Amino acid sequence: MAGEKDKIMAKIDLDKVPEHIAIIMDGNGRWARKKGLPRIAGHRAGVESIREVIETSLELNIKVITLFAFSTENWKRPRKEVNFLMNLPLEYLNKELDNLKKQGVKINKIGCEEDIPEKTLNAVKKGIKETYNNNKLILNFALNYGGRAEIINAVKRIADKVENKELDSNNIDENIFNEYLYTKDLPDPSLIIRSSGEKRISNFLLWQMAYSELWFSPVYWPDFKGEHLLEAIYDYQNRDRRFGKVK
Ligand code: FPP
To answer: How far apart are CA 21 and CA 18, in angstroms?
Structure first.
């Protein structure tokens, strides 16, 4: 409801918005079941919520939105659902890329490229290339992403460097480790949102979330609208972030 959104927007402090919001878009299947529809109808409806989140993020000048679009564990779903989920970014970008370009959105992706169908990967890469110079909002898709896989990948590449004497193991610190993550060019998420009432992290941004604030919304992802994002941001703004320090 636009009225609800305006009401909560008026309470938001525009100087204190989270720089990076990462979202676990959960509840598509339950949303569909509730309506007597196939699960894929829930995923399709979820794309509309992505549109809303981008619009609201642009209004607030949020710098990065990361969306958990497909996890390394999602391959275990039925083939038909996997195929549908893998095709969605392609379908979405075919439809939305021109609009995203105009809005100043810069597309990015994190995750393992292996196993992603070529058509989908090419569409995402095209989106990344064509929005490379945009700087209003980074729209970061976590695609075939798993936090543990990301950390293992970083460890292997660091081990290679040490073995080849290109890196001294005594110099490995958090900043160096960060350089080997998919997210090396992004700030850590200030706020992580999960929709659908589940209170789990599900292998999402394990390293990066060390000091993230967490928000669990009861709303199924296809029902998640701008006002729900604002609700999370409003709560975030009223928290005391100490990063281990005392006041
Ligand atoms: C979790 O809900 C959701 C996913 C595994 C996929 C999320 C993907 C989208 C919202 C669309 C992505 C679109 C683009 C353009 C990248 P679930 O299926 O696990 O829901 P359930 O727990 O209710 O079954």
So the answer is: 7
Quote the pTM value.
0.97
Q: How far is the CA of 24 from the centre of ligand 1 (A)?
A: 8
* Closest Cα to atom 12 of ligand 1: 69
The answer to whether 98 is a known catalytic residue is no
The catalytic residue among 15, 28, 74, 160 is 74
CATH code for the domain in which residue 125 is found: 3.40.1180.10
Atom of ligand 1 nearest to the CA of 33: 23
Containing domain of residue 103, as a range? 18-145+188-237
Domain count, the chain: 1
Alpha-carbon distance values, 161 to 46, 71, 152, 181, 182 (Å): 41, 28, 14, 15, 17
Task: Classify burial at 140, counting beta carbons within 10 Å of its beta carbon; exposed 0-12, middle 13-18, buried 19 or more.
Answer: buried
pLDDT in tens, 108-153: 999 999 999 999 999 999 999 999 999 999 999 999 999 999 999 9
Neighbours of 122 (CB within 10 A): 12
CA distance 136 to 202: 29
Q: Is 26 a catalytic site residue? A: yes
SS3 call for 110: strand
* Ligand 1 atom with least separation from CA of 89: 15
| Token duo for residue 33 | 């079941």
Q: How far, in Å, are 91, 118, 227 from residue 88 at the CA level?
A: 5, 13, 25
